[in-house]
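Onboarding guide, step 5: your first structure request.
Type a short instruction followed by the sequence, for example:

Predict the 3D structure of this protein.
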Amino acid sequence: MRHVYLAATGQNRGKTTVSLGVLDGFQRRGLSASFLKPVGQHTIIKDGVPADEDAVLMKQVFGLPEPLPQMSPVHIPRGFTQAYIEGDVVEDLPARILAAHRAFADRDILLIEGTGHAGVGAVIGLSNATVAAMLGSSAIIVSEGGVGRPIDEIVLNAALFERHGVKVAGAIVNKVDLDAKPGLARILERGLARYGIPLLGVLPYRPILSNPTLAMVLDGIHGETIHAGPDLDQVIGGIAIGAMEPEHMLERIGPHSLVIVPGDRMDVIGAIVADRAANGDAGERDGAIGLVLTGGYRPDRAVLDAIRAADLFATLVPEDTYKVASDLHDLSVKTHAAAAGKIAAIKALLWEYLFIDRVLDVAEEARLD
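The system replies with structure tokens like these:
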């Protein structure tokens, strides 16, 4: 069995997106491939079994037969870290990971996904660098757009991996504006080459991969649903703040925008609803697709009826506009198995822009004895 360890330079760098594309690429190459998340930070319950959400995602998307305890041997629920530090966790966690790793021996190749940057997990003795070394796997580091920042972050993380004896086999840079900077891939490749780190792919920025769906917005801000609209799986194109006169507001609403507006700004809400109702399908493509009504101010019945008649997503929250805008900015965008369109787009994008054969070249044979 060959294997490769996928790490990142921090949170929300697109590591799960890359994992989906890499595993899809392995399968397109005709390989029997599977997925291991040795240490997970986001535990969910699936069919009565606790597991990391990325392991659940991969199992569902690719129909992987391995049981979740094998794919997600160590997961860190709330309170686990404190219990570990206080000595209340006595189980041999490395042994559990090693046993799960050995159970994949009949696969051609195994994708191992880490958690965050190279040092994440050190608090329980299981940093990404430690786990990759324990499993005898080389590492691929995922960063995101720019020139200086991704190279700086990759080199910093590579130093910790190398300190643990882990070979850094390459890097992938995500969310790059290739339309504005078509020569950036060449620059990144040259910059990383100075440190002996091969560039395995540069992935362009796509809003559908980076922005939340309306369903994620609901989950993230815990609002009261006024109207769900036609499709909660719609990806928002951007966020606009309804803090100006209605005619100026309409000029600034981009395609598929979510508008954050105080619930007592009847003029702005009315203008957006009227624009949606007037434009019909065109409004769905070019204007607002939803409203977040802030301050706990509930519009009167006539306005609520108009929102529903226009089939416009709307949710009501008690927080002020600034707080909601900040929360949405910080919303951790995760891919869900039900988001078929987004997953198909991820697979297509990674197949086009990731050098999957280079990834296969750096995947090392696992030492399973």
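Each response can be followed by summary notes, for example: The radius of gyration is 23 Å.
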